[in-house]
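Two quick folds needed for the group meeting slides. Do the first one here.
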Amino acid sequence: METNTHQIKDYSAALNEKYGAPGTPERAQFDEEAYTFYTSQILLDARKEAKVSQSELARRIHATKSYISRIENGTITPSVATFYRIMNALGMRVEVVKPIM
């Protein structure tokens, strides 16, 4: 029986190798795509948890269902203002917390 014993020991090194070092155009593109995906998942999960359809959410923020779908699919990233409007429309709040050092 063969097992996979490959382990990533340094995640930063793996990202650097695959997408380039921080500050390079390739890494900036990867980071932007990762943030877009992460944002889409936050909003999708929040909408489903609130049991609100895409159409209803669109109505609440004066947008189209297609716009909500594109956000949730990671095709587009909403502006910060739209992100807050969506969260508010779902009865949620965004909290910015300074880490304790």
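Then this one, please, same format:
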Amino acid sequence: MEKAKLTRFLVTLLGVVLCAGLGSAMLYADQKAERAITEIQPSATPVAETQKEINQTQKVDINTATKEELEQLPGIGSGLAERIVAYRGEKPFKVIRDLKKVSGIGDKKFEALQDFVCVGTGD
């Protein structure tokens, strides 16, 4: 009879240890998942601050936009907005890729802008 009690005790102890281990593993997995989610979530900085309150649903026509409207585009400051206005004064943009002809707009800046700009109604 003692052997049966010892066996039950050991089985119970084993069950408790396994449950505790499983609980710890689940807790670790939850914490790891939470860290991963935190790392991929955007910062709490409002979009309006990072993109200067640009209306993402309406594109800016680079041939008719004012200097102030151009400054609302991501990465466009006062000087670059002036260069865009000056460039189009000489030769209007035919396609948005023509923005790359403006001094200060390279591939990376163009990639950041292309979804926010258009030329006329089509583009």
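Slide caption for protein two: The radius of gyration is 30 Å.
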